Structure prediction request, 43 residues.
Amino acid sequence: MLYDSLIIKKILKFIIYSKMHLLAIKTIAESFFTFFELSYRLD
Prediction:
């Protein structure tokens, strides 16, 4: 169990220091904005 948490921390560090993390954040943000926009239109 302790070993699993170490692996998770290493993966998180890799994601944080990866150059792709900004793209991932942008993609997630765009998904949320699209969702809110569609919800707003339905109301």
Observations:
- The two ends are 46 Å apart (CA to CA).
- Residues 24 and 33 are 14 Å apart (CA to CA).
